[in-house]
Amino acid sequence: MQKRCQTAMRRLAARPYVPMVPDGPLVLVADALWLTLRRQEYTLYDMAAKPADSNTAVFLEPVLLQGRESARGWRQVIGGISPPVRLRIAGLVSDGFPGAGAICSEYGWIQQRCHWHMLMMFGGSRHPKRRSRKLLRRIRDLACQAAWLVLHTTDRERLSVALGVLATLVPMVPHRARKLPGVIRQFIADCDSGRSYLTEPQLGLPTTTAAIESLHSRIRAITARVHCPESIHRRAACLVRLRPTTLCNPGNHTQN
To answer: What is the helix, strand, coil percentage profile of the chain, to 5?
Structure first.
């Protein structure tokens, strides 16, 4: 039985995969899964194409490359997308992977950063028993709340106030949290790419990479005891062929 399953899996993975992507402008949702196999690093690059007027995305062929996630790897993977699909892409949703901004500039795409990844940078360990740590916790909480408002508000005045709060918090951060000021400054610099779904509503940009994250969860589940790169890529390819679409809702444009 096991041999039959393996044979069927090889045949399915070897079958040419032509994603049935609807007509019209597209948004590319992209994320990578890091793997360590036989003491070597690999990256599984996964993408889905979402029509601007739909809440369903179509998975593209997963690509497994040796080495860490890199701008070079993403350029290779995106360059391998079939021209009929790639030429219709108008926006990119990602966690801000290496080279994402430059790739968007080269292709003329709108960049939308994943809100979950942008906000998680404000988290950290919390020790409420120590007064200094309590101060740091309050600063982190306030910074996260202000950042959330920056990403969601459509009111220009509230946006300005929230950015001002973040800038004011920078010199208040205790020295032991030496990375937090840089995180806040980087967020302020990148906040426009987190608000693209508001400024470009016609693209129907999602605000997270959840569509790919859910795929990665399923891939982890079926490859937990697999340590061969070829087997992992084969299972990922089979999964995409068996379940080629996923729900991918655009960001909410409700007034805040």
So the answer is: 50, 20, 30
205 band by pLDDT with thresholds 50, 70 and 90: very high
- In terms of DSSP bridges, do strands 110-113 and 89-94 run parallel, antiparallel, or are they unpaired? parallel
Considering the four listed CATH numbers 3.30.420, 2.40.128, 3.40.50, 3.40.5, the one that applies to the domain covering 2-114+208-247 is 3.30.420
Q: Is the pLDDT score of 206 beyond 80?
A: yes
Q: Report the pLDDT value the prediction gives residue 146, as an integer from 0 to 100.
A: 94
Helix or strand or coil: residue 99? coil
| Higher-confidence position of 124 and 78 | 78
Q: CA torsion sign, 177 to 96 to 169 to 167?
A: positive
Give the DSSP per-residue string, 212-226: HHHHHHHHHHHSTT-
In degrees and rounded to multiples of 5, residue 10 shows phi and psi of -65, -40
What average pLDDT score do residues 48-72 get? 96
Q: What is the mean pLDDT of the chain?
A: 90
Q: Pick the closest to residue 193 from 109, 113, 108, 105 (CA basis).
A: 113
Burial annotation 193-232 (CB, 10 A radius, 16+ → b, else e): bbbbbbebeebbbbbbbbbbbebbeebeeebeeeeebebb
